[in-house]
Write a structure and sequence with these properties.
single chain, alpha/beta, 2-enoyl-CoA Hydratase, Chain A, domain 1, four-stranded mixed β-sheet
């Protein structure tokens, strides 16, 4: 399927998604719905294991909400919420953000909704919403205090100050900082490693983390054992048997996702 604002390439079991809305890769409602459709298809396609999202060019990953858009920012953005991902809580596959430049407002929130972030050396991340009279309610105000030291997150949320890629790496928000021309290669390397893992096990990991991260360890065990269907599916799968057999036979496993 062709999309007006987004380029999509399937690279084996890895889906590469590129925002392409010159000049700053801003996201309007139409673009957001395109992304929702792409992430829904990714979620439901058993042949796809990992997604990478990036922006066209080297200046902007995404400037977030398109302030020149005719629609109101609180209009329906599709089932995945703003940018197709920020409220897609039933996606049990990993998504990597390849931040090739500035990640501003909703663009930063899109990156925060991903599982892994790789960034170019010149990339900066910030949430300027309070300076225009709103808050980063596409996940920024909810996710950032959980992903950064509270004092740093609060300063960013209250001031809109920028966080460099290197400082974000220092705080553990970013997995890798690389030369601008190596961002996609670094993301692909991580995606390739992820794609070799058992899909049912990866789904179980994401499900368990999402459903237990605010619980105590004791409560988390109870939640995992009783209320995580992907975890239970993984435990009783043929892939679980295949993984053990392949290990004993010193060969690569062949996953069937069942």
């Amino acid at each position: 399927m062709d999309y007006a604002s987004v380029e999509v390439i399937k690279n084996g079991s890895i889906l590469e998604i590129k925002l392409n809305r010159p000049k700053v890769n801003a996201i309007d409602v139409d673009c957001s719905k395109q992304l929702s459709n792409i992430f829904l298809n990714f979620r439901d396609d058993p042949a796809l294991n990992v997604a990478i999202i990036t922006g066209a060019g080297e200046q902007f990953f995404s400037a977030g909400w398109d302030l020149k858009a005719e629609e109101a920012i609180d209009e329906d953005h599709g089932p995945g919420g703003f940018a197709g991902l920020t409220e897609m809580f039933n996606l049990n596959k990993p998504v990597i953000a390849a931040v090739n430049g500035l990640a501003v407002g909703g663009g930063f929130e899109l990156a925060l909704a991903c599982d892994v972030i790789v960034a170019a050396e010149h990339a900066e991340l910030f949430l300027p919403e309070v300076m225009i009279g709103i808050i980063p309610d596409a996940g920024g105000v909810l996710r950032l205090p959980k992903m950064l030291p509270r004092a740093i997150a609060m300063e960013m949320l209250y001031t809109g100050n920028r966080l460099s890629a290197e400082r974000a790496y220092h705080f553990g928000l970013i997995n890798k900082v690389v030369d601008s021309k190596e961002v996609m290669n670094a993301a692909r390397d991580i995606a390739t490693d992820m794609a070799q893992a058992a899909p049912l096990a990866v789904a179980a990991v994401k499900e368990v983390i999402r459903s237990t991260e605010d619980l105590s360890v004791e409560e988390g065990f109870k939640q995992m054992r009783e209320s995580c269907p992907n975890y239970k599916k993984m435990l009783h799968s043929k892939d679980e048997q295949e993984g053990v057999q392949a290990f004993s036979e010193k060969r690569q496993p062949v996953w069937k996702t069942r």
